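job 3f2a | input accepted
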Amino acid sequence: MQKITFCFCWLAQQATHHRLRTNRLSPPFHSSLLLYSSHLPIQAAENSSSSIAISPNTVESRHFSPLSRSHQAKGFPGTSCSHRAASPALRNLIFPSSLCFQMASSVISAAASASPSACPVTDLLKGKAKLGSGNVGSLFIKDKGNPFLNSKSCGRITMAVAVNVSRFEAITMAPPDPILGVSEAFKADNDEKKLNLGVGAYRTEELQPYVLDVVKKAENLMLERGENKEYLPIEGLAAFNKATAELLFGADSPVISEQRVATIQGLSGTGSLRLAAVLIERYFPGAKVLISSPTWGNHKNIFNDARVPWSEYRYYDPKTVGLDFEGMIEDIKAAPEGSFVLLHGCAHNPTGIDPTPEQWEKIADVIQEKNHIPFFDVAYQGFASGSLDQDAASVRLFAARGMEIFVAQSYSKNLGLYSERIGAINVVCSSSDTAARVKSQLKRIARPMYSNPPIHGARIVANVVGDPALFGEWKAEMEMMAGRIKGVRQKLYDSLTSKDKSGKDWSFILKQIGMFSFTGLNKIQSDNMTNKWHVYMTKDGRISLAGLNLAKCEYLADAIIDSYHNVS
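job 3f2a | predicted structure (568 res):
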């Protein structure tokens, strides 16, 4: 219940109307809305949402029945209140105490959309309020039994009125998240054939969530050690930071041995990207971030929220359902010198289309020529190909060239630590001194944002990577997960090829990598997938093969073929 303050203002001689002013009154008090007390009609001010006007022309003698026609206010100069109160310059409007008390005991609970002529008085005014300014007795004097305002009250009565209007009325409903909203719609569907191919989370062949065996062992190890839950430093767990940097660049990399990388633990990929975005906004003012078209749905949100300008470079070619490499190179060349180029380290999301090693070399050439700064998002290391080293090849190529780079990491996919929010931001610098200063500023950004990161996921990663036996088991499990997705991809291709008699070439599915496949379906076709076939996916045509099993591939192929050929 919102608390506001009404002031009855007794105006000077030339006043044409009297206002009830509020300290913090916002819509729904609009000009078209009439509020009623049991005695007095109140018209909302024509040009203000922060005041309510009492027009003299609306005041009739019946509203002041306790007053005599010619009675003059004691202590106030001016004329008497006329019987009809029709004068355009009503000098002194004298409210009887009974009316003040009635108004003071009213709670205004009107909606802006309510029709003025259709609102019953009982619906608009009801409830309780209280006089909030001084002693009630000191506000009025009596003359011959009739109450009048006391001139010593300075012409003002203040009432605290409880209003059934939220201060958050101006806040609109946000649209559902385009990715996470898919799961909400899926849960509401009772069809037994439904498939959730929207959110990128790994499922078993039985389509159940999967907790890696190596994660369970790492957690048991933590319990055996009796580790505490004390706060981590702002930069996170030291053992994790060391492990994640070595995993990314290679333990023998010069950026590690020369201490040229600033690494701090972040809140998975999203949080790590956000830390970097704030660093860009503060220390590279005006610099633009180039983002692939299309890209992961949250990239633009992150940079928008950090007030970092961005533009898109061509990446996906709908004609070939492949990489528009020439367009990509042209756009990177055309960007202002010193721009940040956001690159997907492996398993591009949402297309699943990665540059070849030769194309990565060309991309690095152009970025160096333009003095751009590469910014990698590495969310699937080891999960795309099944090899940690192979999936980090693009990042290591740029680092080996001596380039200063940003790299955001996530362990949501490759270790299945979705809810642990564990990741890191790495900034490779030209010297160890520069890296130390960059790290200090990353910590400064993190401190007011979330203070320090969570410890549980960081310990899991540190234990797995730091223990040779667990590390070997993890690599085997990653190969298993990546292998299952590759098997599903092959089965889907086989089903499409055998069922589709149109001769369409579906081989692009096999050329893609990682947990996603970009089907080439448009929004209308994707809607058909959901509405007719109960296949839930993002509207850009992306499907998560991690949420598919071999048994459902033929059903999915039927849905894709129908949507592609029969829906325009």
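job 3f2a | Confidence is low (pLDDT under 50) at residues 1-137, 153-162.
job 3f2a | closed
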